[in-house]
Design brief:
Oligomer: single chain
Number of strands: 11
Shape: globular
Order of helices and strands: EHEHEHEEHEHEEEHHEEHHHHH
Structural class: alpha/beta
CATH topology of the largest domain: Spore Coat Polysaccharide Biosynthesis Protein SpsA, Chain A
CATH class of the largest domain: Alpha Beta
Length: 314
Amino acid sequence: MKNRCYVFSFNRGEYLNNCLISLEKFAVDFFEIVIIDDGSTDQKTREILKKYAKKFKIFFPQKERSSSKTGGLYENMAFALQDAEKENVDFALFIQDDMQVVRKIGEEDLERVQEFFKQNPDSAQLYTCFLKRCNQKWDDENTLLDASKNAYFRPIDGPRRSSFSAVGLIAVPRFLTMFGKLKKSEHENDTTGRERQIKMGLYIYPFMMWLPFPKSYRKGKRGVYHKIKEILANSGFYPYEEMSSFSEERLFHRLIDIRPYAEDFLSCPPVQKMKQWSFTGVNYAFIEMGGWRKLLGKKLIWIEKRISRIRKII
């Protein structure tokens, strides 16, 4: 069985370095690491890429970075799938630079993965991240254990992603057959999957996650306004501590109806006191901070949506 891990990178050197360190420690026994960079211009990122060029294969497929919200991410994902098909890869793990593998990936994980896909011929992907507490009420009430007892399924007609995610483990030949050409957003691909009744599993023993309250980009840029918002929202670089043996025991021996929410199983001291963590844009980081920041975040979301609508009209 041939497995590859594709790391998608753009201008976040310290995040990329943290992600690659975690992969070296916890994933290289089972995955060949391949970095796909979206044309990084940041000096720190370029230094990290140069450092790891001696260890891992690196691709720079985009001549000019896309101006879309996610940059050239989906073009690069399509490139990764083409590479995986060309190299006869069975399983491709997609991970982004602001993510971290938090525990050792073992033989048992791969056995569970194979059993999951064997028992679920209508599945092409297994989501290997921890769940987010912001979705807890809905996921607790609506996710169901799959036939292999290695994953949960969300209802295919529900409001949460149920068929596709930009990250996780992909059964390459099956995915290409079922999805065909990758579309340019998570929503579009998830919609395609729902229409075709493709179900994505949520792994019951996740091993990776986005870092909480991250710094981010808007269409590949970090303007002054965006940077000020991140300072006010305390967005920053907050890596996880690797899971201890005790934490792993809690994860592997919990009752299966206890869903694996990041805030319950992962340790990140700078934000540990926060009941709920933000993994997306800075406006939502404001909301999770509570108090005056929550009010400001809600107001900014409202204002920016209004401005976006006006621009579309104009």
